[in-house]
Automatic annotation (TrEMBL):
Pfam families membership: SUFU (PF05076)
Source organism: Acrocarpospora corrugata
Protein name: Suppressor of fused-like domain-containing protein
Domain Suppressor of fused-like: 205-337
InterPro entries reported for this sequence: SUFU-like_domain
Length: 342
């Protein structure tokens, strides 16, 4: 019997899909990207008596694995799941998901799950640690607060007025740091909600500052694994047409959630569009700098108890991009004078 789809759920950013699949022998949950590549998985249940060892034949045939007897709470197997009783709860970052059977936590595939490193998800019916699933009960102290926080986050995001309230606080913070706003653009559909605010010259400066509004409304995937700020916004200082410079945010503003990664101080990005179309003149990309000397201090804003870090996009040449790649961003950032590239 070929595998049947019991449940499917795509995260709000369109970058990961949970699929619960079963045949007559077992049920497994997979976390895939849009291309179908599996990034995480966890066994959920056997539906026949458990074998004494791993069934490599099933794995070679691409069938859901069957858990060996030493690692299942139910050696004789259980009845197949009713898909109507299953529900997915995505983590705020979109890189991990919890699976419920009605009100009971059935499994968790966290953002750090990595099958290549022998790190599957956690399952209610698993015992100990196996390549197919780790025991959920042993990890509840760490996972339950995360699941509860995800519930609270989506309850807030889905509440009427949540975006306008967040937007008001973010804009008010920028008012206090950069002066009155100019134009505001909505960056359109296709991922986390994103806006761009223009702050014309003033407050002792003769250039415009543009900032994203909305990136910090959700944590970035994977950031916690690298001990780096998990909420950011992007900013750029420009003496050019702000409408053109704002294209940088259409390029990078949703990148963390679409690509399931994070942006941080010292990261570089090469312009991927047609040569000569870079929005800030004759450069080839940007380096992202936190609190660069000579540019306004925009710090002091927090969301959900997390400090928000503004990353300034400073244009760089092809040579500078290669220098950063070969020798590290410190070599490049120590030489840059951001004010000279406005």
């Amino acid at each position: 019997m070929a595998s049947a789809l019991v449940l499917t759920s795509t995260n709000p950013y369109g970058s990961r899909t949970l699929s619960v699949e079963r045949d007559q022998v077992s049920t497994v949950a997979y976390l895939r990207d849009p291309s179908g590549t599996v990034h995480g998985a966890v066994w959920l249940a056997n539906h026949v008596p458990a074998p004494t060892s791993v069934d490599h034949g099933r794995l070679a045939a691409g069938l859901p694995p069957i858990m060996p007897i030493a690692h299942t709470r139910f050696p004789q197997g259980t009845e197949p799941f009713d898909g109507s009783r299953l529900q997915a709860l995505w983590f705020e970052e979109g890189d991990g998901v919890a699976l419920f059977e009605e009100e009971e936590l059935l499994a968790v595939i966290p953002g750090w799950a990595d099958l290549d490193r022998g790190m599957p998800g956690y399952a209610r019916d698993a015992r100990g640690e196996s390549p197919f699933g780790w025991e959920l009960a042993e990890a509840l102290d760490g996972l339950v607060p995360r699941v509860r926080k995800a519930m609270e986050y989506w309850t807030w995001r889905e509440a009427e007025g949540s975006w306008s309230s967040y937007q008001q606080f973010a804009m008010g913070h920028l008012d206090s740091r950069l002066g009155p706003p100019g134009r505001y653009w909505d960056a359109g559909e296709g991922g986390p909600r994103l806006g761009v605010t223009e702050r014309p010259g003033g407050f002792g400066r003769d250039y415009t500052v543009l900032s994203t509004v909305g990136m910090s409304c959700q944590r970035m995937p994977k950031a916690e694994l690298y001990d780096t700020p998990n909420r950011v916004e992007l900013a750029v200082a420009t003496g050019r047409d702000p409408r053109v410079a704002a294209r940088l945010f259409l390029w990078l503003g949703r990148y963390p959630w679409r690509s399931v990664t994070w942006l941080g101080h010292g990261h570089t990005a090469r312009w991927q569009h047609q040569a000569g179309t870079f929005p800030l003149g004759g450069y080839e990309g940007v380096i992202m700098l936190a609190e660069p000397a000579g540019l306004p201090d925009i710090s002091g804003f927090a969301v959900g108890g997390d400090a928000v870090q503004w990353l300034w996009l400073v244009p760089v040449t092809d040579t500078e991009l290669r220098l950063a790649a070969e020798r590290g961003h410190e070599v490049l950032s120590s030489r840059l004078i951001p004010q000279n590239r406005i």
